[in-house]
Write a structure and sequence with these properties.
heterodimer, A: 217 residues, Rossmann fold, seven-stranded mixed sheet, 6 helices, 7 strands, globular, B: 257 residues, mainly beta, Immunoglobulin-like, four-stranded mixed sheet, 16 strands, disordered N terminus
């Protein structure tokens, strides 16, 4: 294994739709992380919120990539309880890439209580296993589109996550680009160049975190 | 607007209490509790089924949040004696005493009617309340002479923060029109002039402190040790009537998971 910035780290990476299609975040991020020496199990589940990773929930699509094998799933896709995943993989770092599915872009009122319940439910489950974790927040999209993503709400969502994901360390994806800089196909999901840029930035930010540097072997 | 036609699961007080009863018996989070807290996931699934018919080019459409925020209710014993909480139309009971004066916050369907009864010996107080979306309602049983009554106080918090402690003062002391909490040993007021049947909430650092209740300018009772307050957790101090005066106790604002 190359002696990269993430050498020796076994990562469990969980995400929403961004991590569920090959041309999205799944392949470029997996490749960036493994190039830097990490051993990665990445699972995407379209539409999954934080609370959906506490149990098995059916989702309309998803993907699972582990040890080079990738399975992209349609309606057979599900989430899995985080405790089971951690017990099975025994990662030394959990990375959550989640935000857009909880932002309620089409609703004037942000569902704070629901979001808080889901986020803290997931972080407490991870903390109970004493596995360090990192939460990667949403990136800027392009206003409008079928998900009604908008700059004001995505900024609010990132701020809400930053305040509520502890003990996970928060990575603010909004710092990786300017609003609208990464082109999207539907306001929310990026084209390949956007996902490649997001992947490179996530990998770089992960490697710079003290909690990650402490894990390197 | 693309919105899923979401159907809430009917969560009644009877269901809550039957689950609470099992919870109290096992002292662990049971499968039933999980079923209760899973109602939001049910919403998501409903939304996802809806989304299948709205298939887009690359990825099926899905909602980016629930159609309504979560709602919660809990029950507090603000009397000096052990009492029972019963759901309407059910034999399920939960006992609340001085050692365990509070239930956890249970997720409930917004705007649904929550019906039940507090009972203490022959005294009873019928509960009928509802909870708004995003609201956390505390139903507090109180002594009313030799009878029993209750008040329901709701809050819609916007201070969620995993790095701080969230602490509230609920004042339901009938002889304490203006309640304050002072940090013992320091000239610092945590809460000031909280009117009867209202609450005030604030963020504090996760420190170990004791507090002293004041009604108006009058020191009431002895200090209350708040214990080790944990960052990210939420707590409530209740000021309740007690034999012509007012006493305070602290509970965790834990949510059933």
């Amino acid at each position: 294994m190359a002696a990269g910035t993430l050498a020796g780290i076994a990562m469990l990476v969980l995400g929403e739709s961004h991590l569920s299609l090959p041309g999205y975040l799944m392949n470029p991020l997996y490749e960036e992380l493994t190039t830097q020496g990490a051993s990665v199990h990445a699972i995407g589940a379209c539409g999954a919120t934080a609370g959906d990773w506490l149990k098995k929930v059916e989702v309309p699509c998803g993907a699972d990539r582990f040890k080079g094998d990738t399975v992209f799933k349609g309606r057979a896709a599900t989430t899995s309880p985080i405790k089971e995943l951690i017990a099975q993989d025994k990662p030394n770092l959990v990375v959550i890439i989640l935000g857009d599915t909880m932002a309620s872009y089409d609703n004037e009122t942000f569902p704070r209580a629901w979001a808080w319940q889901g986020i803290t439910g997931l972080t407490k489950e991870i903390a109970a296993t004493q596995t360090p974790c990192v939460w990667v927040g949403p990136a800027w999209g392009t206003p409008g589109g079928k998900y009604f993503k908008n700059d004001k709400r995505v900024e609010f969502m990132a701020g809400f996550l930053e305040k509520n994901v502890a003990p996970c360390v928060f990575i603010d994806s909004l710092k990786f680009s300017k609003p609208g800089q990464w082109a999207t196909v539907d306001g929310q999901h990026f084209n390949l160049a956007g996902y490649q840029a997001w992947s490179a930035n996530i990998t770089k930010a992960l490697a710079a975190l003290p909690v990650v540097q402490g894990l390197k072997k | 607007m693309i919105r899923a036609d979401l159907t809430f699961r009917d969560v009644t007080l009877r269901k809550i209490l039957s689950i609470a009863e099992a919870y109290a018996r096992e002292m662990t989070c049971s499968a039933s509790l999980t079923r209760l807290t899973a109602y939001c996931a049910g919403l998501m699934l409903s939304g996802l089924m809806f989304s299948a018919s709205s298939h887009a080019a690359d990825i099926p459409l899905y909602p980016t949040g629930p159609s309504a925020d979560s709602s919660f209710v809990r029950f507090i014993n603000g009397t000096d004696a052990a009492l029972e909480l019963t759901a309407a139309g059910s034999k399920a009971k939960v006992q609340l005493d001085l050692k365990t004066p509070s239930t956890v916050f249970y997720p409930v369907r917004a705007k649904s009617e929550i019906k039940g009864q507090f009972s203490l010996a022959q005294s009873k107080s019928d509960i009928s309340t509802s909870v708004k979306a995003g609201e956390f309602v505390s139903v507090i049983a109180l002594a009313d002479g030799s009878k029993l009554k209750h008040v329901a106080i709701g809050e819609e918090p916007d201070d969620f923060n995993a790095l701080k402690v969230s602490l509230a003062l609920y004042n339901v002391g009938t002889t304490c029109a203006s309640a304050s909490l002072q940090v013992v040993g320091r000239d610092v007021m945590l809460f000031e002039k909280v009117a009867t049947n209202t609450l005030t909430r604030r963020m504090i650092n996760p420190v170990k402190i004791s507090v002293q209740l004041l009604c108006g300018d009058q020191v009431i009772g002895g200090p209350l040790e708040l214990g080790e307050l944990i960052a990210g957790e939420r707590y409530s101090v209740f000021a309740v009537p007690a034999a012509g005066t007012t006493r305070v106790f602290i509970v965790s604002d834990a949510v059933a998971r």
